[in-house]
């Protein structure tokens, strides 16, 4: 619970094959690729300025400062927020929904704009797969306390849903932490009759399978898309600041509800994906957020899609 409180205060205070050669294209806030027979569009929701020293523990400030300097990245770090549109048969499926107006900052909440630039309207979305309910992933489900996606079914892990509908989790929270929790809870309530939960690993669609990566939140889940032997994993919040976390994967992440479990999930998934050379879609990696991991000793290198 302490990690939840830190995460909400921090947000408020700082306000394997893939065929892409002829189909990948970047147009401002969108990037289009093809995974087998399925088209995937990366959509930018904007950026959220974040204090790296608070996010990744201040006792490591010397290492963090050195890595930021080496990478040419200034603190606060402008963390990218990406969502992904999957065009699957007659389905138009969003992976996460960005921040909307939840964080009340001008630099984020641009998903609908990006979606329209790609040629789609919110009413076109049939399904939204939430990796988790943190504000920068679920906030875009609502604008001015009204639902944005009138026809979408919301899919999320049962543990995630149960956590956010249980008011016992408000016990011990300070005012600002309560505000975040209740706002996230209210967003889910707007879609109450259109929420489908799942347990463990299962196929939501024939081409899309859930991959629970619990720890960051109670029900944090990645989604694996497979088409014609081509795969991509939409991994949610397995990294926030790649310039630091891929080099120092043992660092604790203050956004994790379960610090140890979250860290262990990262260590495990980094190693596994680097070994398999699996294509990754990251919510917080520089747009378009798609690439692969390469392992060198105890460090990892992000290889962006070209």
TrEMBL record:
Signal peptide residues on this chain, from the entry's feature table: 1-24
Metal-binding as UniProt keyword: yes
Pfam hit, one: Lactamase_B
Keywords attached to this entry: Hydrolase, Metal-binding, Signal, Zinc
Gene3D superfamilies to which the protein is assigned, alphabetical: Ribonuclease Z/Hydroxyacylglutathione hydrolase-like
Coiled-coil regions listed: none
CDD domains: OPHC2-like_MBL-fold (cd07720)
GO molecular function terms attached to this record: hydrolase activity; metal ion binding
Hydrolase in keyword set: yes
Ranges for domain Metallo-beta-lactamase: 80-284
Annotated PANTHER family: QUORUM-QUENCHING LACTONASE YTNP-RELATED, QUORUM-QUENCHING LACTONASE YTNP-RELATED-RELATED
Family recorded in the similarity comment: Belongs to the metallo-beta-lactamase superfamily.
Protein name: MBL fold metallo-hydrolase
